[in-house]
Structures are given as structure tokens and as C-alpha cells.
Amino acid sequence: MADNVLFIAFPYAAVLVAVVMSVYRYIDHRFTYSSLSSQLLEREQLSWSSVAWHYSILAILLAHVLAALFPGFWGALLGGQFRLYLMEITGMGLALVAILSVLAFIWRRLTNPRVRAVTTRGDWVLLAALLAQVVLGFLTALLYRWGAVWYLHTAVPWLESLVRLNPQIDAIAPLPWLIKLHFLGGFVIVALIPFTRLVHAFTFPLSYVWRPYRVVVWNRRAH
Amino acid sequence: MRIQAQISMVFHLDKCIGCHTCSIACKNIWTDRQGAEYMWWNNVETKPGTGYPTQWEDQARYKGGWEKKGDRLKLRMNSRLGALGNIYYNPYLPTLDDYYEPWTYEYDNLINAPAGDDQPTARPISQITGQPLEIQAGPNWDDDLSGSPVYAANDPNLADLSEEDRAMLFEIERLVFFYLPRICNHCLNAGCAAACPSGAIYKRGEDGIVLVNQDKCRGWRMCITGCPYKKVYYNWSTGKSEKCILCYPRLETGQAPACFHSCVGRIRYLGVLLYDADRVTEAASVDDRALVSAQRDILMDPFDPQVIAAARANGVPDGMIEAAQKSPVYKFVKEWQLALPLHPEFRTVPMLFYVPPMLPVQATLADGRVNLAAVDEDDPLALFGSIEQARVPLAYMARLFSAGNTDEIVRVYRKLLAVRVYRRAQSAGDVPAAEAVRILADAGLTPDSAEAIFKLTATPTFEDRFVIPPMAREVNIESVIDPLTHKQGAGFGFRQDARRGQ
Ligand code: HEM
Ligand code: SF4
Ligand code: SF4
């Protein structure tokens, strides 16, 4: 029963909240959509922590998403033993980098008075959730080897069943609690998106690559 | 030919007294808010000096503006993909310490301190942290400190000067400085807009004012680097970038921008320029020496029937064209060619122009002493000293206003001098009139134009200085919003609390 609530009801609720509230925030409080950069106030520590954090977490997220979307391809990719080793080591390395950089974010916000002045409750909640999640992820990788492969036979079928609106938790029910906590943490962070600065990740300005350098806005003419 | 209108500016530097009234007028209206305390949309710098933020002109460090790569222009900071790569941390962003940490004083303590033996004091406290702070710098920290080894000596513009020129500039008996008031230049090829990953910075088609859409800005803070003039500021509280809005709510109601209106030296002029929007890139891509003239070339004659027809065809209203014909800026920049853009080599095609200063007038130096009986029948120019001996070296002025092309500066100075001699002939009568006219002609002026220059420089009325076009905002917006509703909202543009997100 508890599993049904945690791994069926909660994920749906989290995604629903994330979508509805993010759209609402975008429509009604668009002004609050921002990366809320604090680089102006402190740059030395941010210069490595922000870069390290974003590249490591984006790579990790990309791996999670790719594996879930193309399990066949992912399985084939890790077919060879060497490639599997490489993936495991890379994954753990990136997770370590991510852990260190969230710790650096937290340290920076605790110790630098200027950055502290612009730190909100939302920032603390988010940083705590991210730290917990990357630590859980790292422990999962460390304690339960070859996650890059068993992920395909546990979490992926579960996620797929959620997407198909035919929720099945059999594949993940027998997993250890540590791994289940990592799953839960993922959806907690999803639910946090609209209430924290995490919205910034969804306004990634890809169109910069092709938009014209000059932007002219006319009031009357439709140019 | 695609004619567009641009509200443009001229600052006459010989008239600036460095009083900072402009800065205060602006501060009181627009930036007296949390997160904006350190922003000086209008600031006044002492030159030679390091400016605000410190050494903003040093693009090796701040990477602002454009550079020419072959025939093409590219942002100095990075390529488009490079911008997305640098988005998590912008290596060229100034920090608050390059500006200053804004502070106030603990005034409460003056009233509420418990009775004691000492006078209570009002300690400075940071407006960010609320904690006591040791004041290290301020927005005009080097005010009047020309010649100082800490400030003036670190002016990036001195790089071009010969040893001799530099020594002359810092000789204590000859110490000289002038003021450089700066606002956003509302550029035609704005670096800020090009650098913004979100495309939040735009130019208003009708009048060319450059604005940051506060709803589209995502705080990627690239514009601050993109603007070589450092005239976009990051609001550390709201997480959005802000810049000079040329007081558009005032302009739309027929008033001059606050800094213009309040200017004590009456150095500021505002008016419309018509330009050929098709040729902006071309004008921004020529070699350094030709930048000023190329920019002048794309400014079109508002009396030319062909230009008028093209303007009308491109939807420029008649009121705008009429304003362009009366524009004091057109006269200074194009007709008399007295006003030059600041740092055209940044290639943003800035639309704020400066009449370079000649003051202090240098009475002839005879044997190193000031000759008060300076009028020399044979050489009427002697009173004002020779251009080559200008107190501020020509090379320095050229670094500021003509991308190093001293010819442009000499041309302007000769005109300014000629007008002075001409007026001297009229008012004091100790220069032969014919000689004065000859000097005018040599400089490329006629008595009529000299008269007009004199009048617009020395005794202009409010209406002469500010020719504000009818902006007809109420007509322009009626398809979007009821003009009466809009009228109540004139301001930053949205009616919600500008609250920081989470
Ligand atoms: C995909 C595109 C993303 C972009 C372009 C991006 C960009 C940024 C930027 C510009 C900042 C501000 C850095 C500064 O203070 O100057 C930032 C901060 C932050 N980002 Fe991202 N981000 C992205 C994705 C993510 C993701 C996926 C996460 C987490 C799962 C994340 C978590 C954070 C956190 C926690 C901070 C605050 C760090 C701190 O100052 O304490 N970002 N991001
Ligand atoms: S001066 Fe700077 S902020 Fe103003 S338009 Fe030019 S590039 Fe943009
Ligand atoms: S108000 Fe006018 S005279 Fe005074 S500092 Fe500003 S520009 Fe110069």
C-alpha cells in the first residue's frame, strides 16, 4: 500500500504540481523566472562550483534520461565489460563532483554575508534536496554495482508504466530502501521545480544559437 | 534605404561642471530601490581617471562590445555557443567590488543611542548585508583626482600616449581634467542586446530606445559583459538586469529625461536622428580610422525629399520627421560635425555624442608664465593657445572619441576655436573681423553657422536643447491596451510587485 502511494500516487502528483504550477508561475509571475545569479556578489567560489555542478549534474541527468528513453540502445552501449566499467566509473566520478559542488554552494551561502543576504528559504530547501539526492545516487552506485544496467530492468519499466498510465511497481518493489529513497528524491525535486529557482533550467536559451543579434520591437507593425 | 528614427543625445563637455546633479536626479527617480542602489544609470567621471565600474574601458579584461574578425563583426566576449557554455559562470563579469558595496548610515543610532559620555555616531552599514562596513570605494571615488597615481595613472586610454604626452598630463603645474557624464548610448548595434541569451533586450522600433524586458530576462547576466560601456547593471535582489530607459515615460509625456532636465551646466541636448537601418552593420565594420565618418554617413538629411519619402514609406510618422528637422543633435553631429561618439571602436554605433572639451582655455604661456595681455594682433588664435599644445593631449581625446583618429579631433577643435575667435571679434573687437571670418572659413564654417553654433552652445532655450518628438504612445498602443489604462501605468511596464523569485 505504502509503495502504491509513494511510487504511483506521489510521482503523478509531483509531475502534475510541477507542470501546473510552473505554467501558472510563467503566466502570472513571469518576472520571478530567473537564474537568480549571485555571481556579482561573489565570484571566486562560484567560478568552479557552478561550472562543476552544472556540467556534472547535466551529464548525469542526460544519462538517466537517455537510458529511460532508449533502453535498447543503452543496453547495447554497455554490452561490453570495459564500456560498463567506464560508465560506472564516470558516473561515480560525476556524482562525487556534484556532491562536492553542492557542498560548496551550501558553504558559500553560509559563509559569505553578501550571498547569504540573497538566500531564501527556497534556496535552502532546494540545496538540501539536491545534496540528499546526489548523495543517495552516489551510495546507490557504490553499494549496488552495475546500476547502469539494472536500472534498465527496474526503474525504466516502472517509469514507462507510469508514462503509459498503466502503473506497475512490481519491478521496483523488491529493491532496497536506499534505492527507493533515491527514486522518491527525484520526484520530490520535480515537485520543487515551480517553487524554487529550479525553473531556470527549463528556460534554457537554446534559441540564442539562431536568433538575430538585433532585436527590434515595434508597437504597431507586425514585423 | 530603410529609414528609422533614433532619439539621440549630445553632451557638450566644455560646459559640464561635474556637479553630479544629473546622477542624483536619475537615482531619485529610478534606482532608489533594493538591488539598484549601486546602479548609476547616469554617472559622471573625471578624465583621466578609471571610471565606473573601475577601468570599464579595458576590454582585455571585460570583453565588451564587438571586434572585427576579417570582414565580420563578432562579440568580443564569445561566440553564440560559447555564451551557452559560459552561462553557468561568466568569466568576464565585474564583481560588486569593481563597482562598490552600497551603504547607508545607521542614523537611528543618533537618536536612540543610550545616554553616555560620547556623542553617538552614525556608522556606515552595507545596504546588502546590513552589517557595518569599511567604505572602500564609491561611484565617483576618483572625482577630481586626476593626476593621482591610483586613479588617473590607471586610465586605460593612456595606453596610446607617448611618454612625453603622459609626462605632460601628469606635470603638477599643468594638471588638467574634465568630466565625462555617461548614460546608456542607446546604440544602433547594441552589444548588450546581442549578448543576451534570452533575447530580452530590444530596441524600440519607433524611437530606438534600448530596453530590458524584465519579464523575459532570466538573469543570465551576459548583457553586462556585452555592453562595452558597462551600462547594464545586474539587480542583485530581483535577479534581473536593468539599464537606463532614457526616461521613456517622461519622453512619452513630452518631458526631457530627468538628467537632461536637471543638468546644471545645460550641457545636454536631445533630438531625433534619421538613419539608414540597412547600413548599420556596414558602418560598424569599417576600419578604426573611418568609424566616425562611417557612422556620420548613415545619418540621413531630414530635409532631403528622398529621405523623407523613404522615412514615410517605412512608417516613420510626420511628427518624428519634423522633430528630426529641428533636432539640435543633427546640427551638432552631422551639420557642424562637432560631436563625436564615445569609443566608436567598440563598434556598437553609440547614439550619444560628445563635443570634446577644449577647456580650460590656455592663455598663451610666455616663458612658462601665463600671459594675461594675450591678444596678439598678428595671431588671433594665440589667446587660446595652439591646438597642438592643447592641455589634454590630442591623442588622449582621439582615444576617447574617434578610435585614435586625431584628425577628427583637430577638425572639431579648429571649429570650436574659430567660433571663439569670431565671437571675440564681435564682443571684444580686438580681432580684425575679416581675419575672424578667414579663420572660420579655414575651419569649414560660415559666419551664419558660427552664429548658430554660438547660440546653441551658449544661450539655448529649453526648447532649443530638447526637441522631443510627439511619441504618440497612446496611438501606438491602442491595439494592445486601452490608452486610459496605460496612462495610469506609465512606469516600468508591469503592474505587479517586482518581487524576487525563489
Ligand atoms: C539546463 C540548463 C541550466 C542552466 C542554463 C543553468 C544556469 C544557472 C545559472 C546561470 C545559475 C546562476 C549561477 C550564478 O549564481 O551566477 C544557476 C544556479 C543554480 N542552478 Fe542551474 N542551470 C541549469 C540547470 C540546472 C539543473 C538541472 C539544476 C539542478 C538539478 C540546477 C541547479 C542550480 C542551483 C541549485 C543553482 C544555485 C547555486 C547557488 O548559487 O547556490 N541548474 N544555474
Ligand atoms: S550603451 Fe550598452 S546598454 Fe546601452 S545600448 Fe549600448 S550596449 Fe546596450
Ligand atoms: S548635471 Fe550636467 S553639468 Fe552637472 S555633472 Fe551632470 S552633465 Fe555635468
- Percentage beta strand of chain A: under 5%
Helix content of chain B: 25-40%
CATH topology of the domain at 267-465 in chain B: Alpha-Beta Plaits
Number of strands of chain A: 1
What Rg of chain B do the Cα atoms give? 24 Å
- Average predicted local confidence, pLDDT of chain B: 90
Average pLDDT confidence of chain A is 94
The CATH class name of the domain at 267-465 in chain B reads Alpha Beta
The description of the largest β-sheet of chain B is:
5 strands, mixed
Physical arrangement of strands within the biggest beta sheet of chain B: 13-12-1-15-14
Tell me the distance between the termini of chain A.
58 Å
Q: What series of H and E elements makes up the topology of chain A?
A: HHHHHHHHHE
What secondary-structure arrangement, pairings included, does this model have?
The complex is a heterodimer of chains A (223) and B (502).
Chain A: H1 2-28, H2 44-69, H3 71-77, H4 81-111, H5 113-117, H6 121-143, H7 147-153, H8 155-163, H9 177-192, E1 216-217
Helix pairs in contact in A: 1-9, 2-3, 2-4, 4-6, 6-9
Chain B: E1 3-12, H1 21-30, E2 43-47, H2 59-62, E3 66-69, E4 72-75, H3 80-85, H4 96-99, E5 103-105, H5 108-112, E6 124-126, H6 163-170, E7 178-182, H7 191-195, E8 201-204, E9 210-212, H8 223-226, E10 232-235, E11 240-243, H9 248-251, H10 258-262, E12 268-276, H11 280-284, H12 291-297, E13 299-300, H13 305-313, H14 318-325, H15 328-335, E14 340-341, E15 352-355, E16 365-366, E17 369-370, H16 394-401, H17 406-427, H18 433-443, H19 447-458, H20 462-465, H21 473-477, H22 483-489
Parallel strand pairs in B: 1-15
Antiparallel strand pairs in B: 1-12, 2-7, 3-4, 5-6, 8-9, 10-11, 12-13, 14-15, 16-17
The complex binds protoporphyrin IX containing FE (HEM) and iron/sulfur cluster (SF4) (2 copies).
